[in-house]
């Protein structure tokens, strides 16, 4: 199993949810109001007067077989509005209860 941690502009929340539903990924954890600045450009999302945008973060635990398709779908979403920003990171899950 893998953990996929996705950080994205709050403008992408509906599209991100649609990807998860379409892929049959039901369980997730979401953080709202995540602040940060991307490493590849775009504007910071700090929730401040100067940088008012905010990010969201969603983590899902999925079977290894779903990771490539999920990343492909997220990459398409990112490319549709690159200045909004979206990054995804994958970790191995050693154990779970």
Explain the overall architecture.
- With 97 residues, the protein is of the alpha+beta class.
- It has one domain: Alpha-Beta Plaits (2-Layer Sandwich).
- It has 2 helices and 4 strands, in the order βαββαβ.
- Strands 2-3-1-4 form a 4-stranded antiparallel beta sheet, covered by helices on one side.
- Helix 1 (13-22) runs antiparallel to helix 2.
- The radius of gyration is 14 Å and the shape is globular.
- The model has no long low-confidence stretch (mean pLDDT 89).
SSE diagram, text form:
Layout: E1 2-9, H1 13-22, E2 29-34, E3 55-62, H2 64-80, E4 86-92
Antiparallel strand pairs: 1-3, 1-4, 2-3
Helix pairs in contact: 1-2
Topology-level CATH name: Alpha-Beta Plaits
| Strand runs, count | 4
Mean pLDDT across all amino acids: 89
Judged by helices, strands and strand pairing, the structural class is alpha+beta
Oligomer: single chain
Secondary-structure element order, N to C: EHEEHE
| Major β-sheet annotation | 4 strands, antiparallel
The number of helical runs is: 2
Number of domains: 1
The main sheet orders its strands as 2-3-1-4
Q: If you compute it from the alpha carbons, what radius of gyration comes out, rounded to the nearest whole angstrom? A: 14 Å
Q: Output the CATH class name.
A: Alpha Beta
Strand content: 25-35%
